[in-house]
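Dear Dr. H.,

I hope your travels went smoothly. While you were away I took the liberty of generating a structure for the chain from your last submission, since the lab meeting agenda had it listed for discussion. I wanted you to have the full record in hand beforehand rather than looking at slides cold. The sequence, exactly as received, is reproduced here:
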Amino acid sequence: MRVFRTVVRRTREARGRRAPRIPGAARVLLGCLPGAAAVVALGLCASGVERATARPLAARPAAHSAARPHIVPRSVWLDEATRRDQPPPRYDDQVVAVFVHHTDSPGGYDCADAPRIIRHLYAGQTGPRDWDDIGYNFLVDRCGTIYEGRAGGVDRPVTGAHTQGFNHRTAGIAALGTFTAGAEVPRAMTDAIAALAAWKLGLSGTDPRAKVSLVSSNNLSRYPSGTTATLPALAGHDAGYMTDCPGAALSAHLPWIRERAARYQGRP
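The corresponding predicted structure, in token form, is as follows:
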């Protein structure tokens, strides 16, 4: 997953950032323990995020729903020393699709260290990359713990910054670690992703196994701006953007995650 400087410069006003300064990917080095590699890799995996526009909120009754899983709040991983000023959250009307990512960072971490890793991911995006917040709506560690990512309220349709062209009406779930071919994907992690997707998609009555229509908002996605694309309601990052994310190993688990999420919603 490479992000070339020429592409980054061309899209810097479309990335949900506070200022037009965009350093190259090679500069995203914070000198932390597992966090440093995670920061660099996150920029590559979450490449292609754009500034979203606000949309009115609308309630829609869900025919199928799932229980909300436990979600660790931002206050657990974001301390005052790291926190940066940011604009108010932006919202869409609802979430009808979920994009699954991996952070392409070291995977042998102690789960107790996950808050520190997420904190360094946030610092890398809001510091050297100058984004307005962490791009992902949620992050899941190898033990199945779910963390709130982007600010705005976990139960609301917060416009994320995770998938070029398809940040509207979607949520981004990032698996902490690297899940390329041959990597072990912990069952606790995939089950947590399924539970989270089932709940989030259930708020709009969306079947995790369905296909949905999404309109691309950026020419650097797989689809030109304005194109209506038919994509899985529970998709890998690579469905919407030219990338290897979420890795071959995690991608291979997506069919199981969809079925598991549908069962969590009580669907046959």
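Two observations you may find useful: The helical segments are 5-10, 34-45, 74-77, 114-126, 187-202, 248-252, 254-264. The two ends are 37 Å apart (CA to CA).

With kind regards,
E. W.
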